[in-house]
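Minutes, project check-in
Item: structure for the 236-residue chain
Input as provided by the requester:
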Amino acid sequence: MEFGIIVFPGTWSDTDCYTAVTDNLGQEARYVWHKDSDLSGLDCLIVPGGFSYGDYLRPGAIARFSPVMPAVQRFADSGGLVIGICNGFQILCEAGMLPGVLTRNSHLQFRCQWVNLRVESSNSPFTNRCEVGDVLAVPISHGEGNYYADDATLDALEQNGQIIFRYSDTDGGVTKASNPNGSRRNIAGISNREGNVLGMMPHPERCCDPLVGGTDGLAIFRSILEFTQKIASASL
């Protein structure tokens, strides 16, 4: 399969994502500049982390108006897989592709550390290689990862199975102490209603090789690969 990695001015996790899906996953990838709109031949889009447009106004607020974003929306509307990581999650929320907003961390500190994520759904294209309750060790690096939505939206996310990851302790306990940014209901990652768009604050691309301290991020990328291969086989 081939991944497309969106690059905005200020993006800096693009090469990490490229390495994860090529060197570690063994698949193809190409960079897509923010002024481009040709997404032909791509099976999954990655909107990576960084500080798009310097995070002016607020993270993702300017990137949502980039020429590439209507193409990303069309890609998702046609059923294509899209994963937004960190700043990518912020961009997808600003663009209205995911509900809610990412706000300043509750402790007002930038956090760069390893966290634990409890898998809340194994029906997602992004977690089909996991079991519900699995705990993944994945690093974070953000100052504005505090997920907020009103109670009605949160209840809908719960009922529709759109909460994919929650911050937890090593045993899978969802506790206040395990929440690194104050996100409501310990939310670390959500999907759209259709399930083909995922936004998550932690960085799975940074834990795909033992050299960087862990490989739990591969569970997410391998899930994407398996889902895509099944779809391709079904269409033959």
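Outcome recorded: Helices lie at 14-24, 68-77, 87-94, 151-159, 218-234.
No further action items on this chain.
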